[in-house]
Specification:
The chain is mainly α. The protein has three helices and no strands. It is elongated, with a radius of gyration of 24 Å. The protein starts with 34 loop residues before the first helix and ends with a helix.
């Protein structure tokens, strides 16, 4: 099906347009991020999620209990409640 490619599918030099989509480097070499900096970025990115679990989930536990009794509590929410309870017992 290579013959079916149109002029709109290619750019100068015969490269496919899709290979350029999402490329922010524009031909420059990517600079590697050190592992410690990457770990710090991931740690900071998880802070809002952990804050929600530690602060807000215990406030809604009565609502979650009602849903659990009816059998309507999703498994992911059960896991988050378990993590919240573990945090309360250890903290």
């Amino acid at each position: 099906m290579e013959a079916a490619a149109t002029a709109a599918d290619t750019v100068a030099g015969g490269m496919c347009m899709s290979s350029k989509i999402g490329s922010a480097n524009h031909g420059r070499a990517a600079v590697p991020i050190p592992w410690l900096v990457r770990a710090a970025i991931y740690a900071v990115a998880w802070l809002p999620f952990l804050g929600l679990i530690l602060v807000f989930v215990p406030r809604f536990e009565p609502l979650f209990r009602k849903l659990d009794v009816r059998g309507e509590l999703p498994a992911l929410t059960e896991s988050i409640l378990w993590l919240s309870r573990v945090n309360e017992t250890l903290g």
